[in-house]
Every structure is written in C-alpha cells, then in structure tokens.
Amino acid sequence: MTTSWSWLEDTYWCVPLVSLPALRFDQSDNALTWLIDQTVWHITGYRDGYFWGVNAALLRDAGEEAPERGPGSQPRGFTMLGSVTPEGSVHLTFIPSSGGSPTIGLGRIVPFEAGQSFEMQMSTGAGSKTTAHWAFMAQVRPGDPSWDSLPGFDGWSVDKMLEGLEPPSVEK
Fold it and tell me: In the chain, which residue ranges form alpha helices assigned H by DSSP?
C-alpha cells in the first residue's frame, strides 16, 4: 500500500488514445452522441493526501475532424482540487475558470502501461446536455510524443492546452 503520493506534485497527465470516447445525452431530442474528449492536467501541488492544479478539456463529435488550434476551438479551463487516500482512491473537483457548476470525478490510481495511471469517471452537464466519460489519465512528460501532439487533437500540445491557466496559490 502506498501511503505517500507526494510524487504527484508537478506532474502532467492526458487521456491516451484508448480512453478518448465519451458519451453525451441531449434531453431536448432524446439522443446520444459519441464524443472525443481530451483532457490535460497539471498537478501543481500535493500535501497530506490532497493535490491541486489546473486542467483543460477539448471535446468534439466523434465523426468530426480534429479541430485546428484557432479561435473556434478553445479548451475549457479549470482549477482542480483533489484528494487521494493511502490506498489510491481519488476524488476530484473541477472548478470552471469561467464560472459555473463544478464537475466531480471519482476514481483510483492503478497500474497502466509502463507506470501508474488515474482511472477516472465523471459526468457533467449544462442545460439539456449531459456528458459521461471514463478514462485512464496517463502521465506525460516533455519529449513524449503526446506532449507535442495530444491524442485525438493533432496540433494541440500540453503547453497550448494549459496556456493562460494559473494554479491556485497555497497559504502555508
């Protein structure tokens, strides 16, 4: 059992190709739509089972081409606040930078590919549309192929996704 998750501080995470599909329900026309959901996290701090940072998400319909980086396709930014138990259970709150209701994510840290991963589930909605998504969040580092070209969104890098987001300051 891991009792310290301090290694999470100053790490970056993204959705690998296998975990991109998400499902949206539109109550107004009683229809389901498959989406592609790329989310990037920067965990900027950790202390005593709590962690925090920023994240950004881009969504598109699964049948559409990946959007180019431009004014019509900007990621949505969030501040993230999380907790992790000694056994690796995770609870995350994503607070929108532009205001609005937070999104809650639940999951755990599990082995994945060559290291550890967050295995997460979330749902969020505005108006008549609700989106559900489960994903592995894989750690990504500068120099990794996914750092410069995120799965599902070629031309988008980790740096571009997180551009302009300020992590929360921490009082001692």
Answer: 145-148, 158-162
Q: What is the CA radius of gyration of the chain?
A: 16
Task: Give residue limits of the domains in the chain.
Answer: 6-162
pLDDT of residue 71: 43
pLDDT tens digits for 88-123? 999 999 999 988 889 999 999 997 777 889 999 999
Q: What token pair was written down for 19?
A: 């975990």
Say if strands 31-47 and 50-61 run parallel, antiparallel, or are unpaired. antiparallel
**CA atoms 121, 37, 63, 130: torsion sign:** positive
Token duo for residue 151: 């799965």
What proportions of the chain, in percent to the nearest 5, are helix, strand and coil? Answer: 10, 55, 40
Query: Which portions of the chain are predicted below pLDDT 50?
Result: 1-2, 70-72
Task: Mention every residue, 6+ apart, whose C-beta is less than 8 A from residue 153.
Answer: 36, 38, 58, 60, 66, 67
- Number of Cβ within 10 Å of residue 161's Cβ equals 26
Counting Cα atoms < 13 Å in the Cβ hemisphere of 109 gives: 21
pLDDT given for residue 63 in this prediction: 82
Q: Rounded to two decimals, what is the model's pTM? A: 0.91
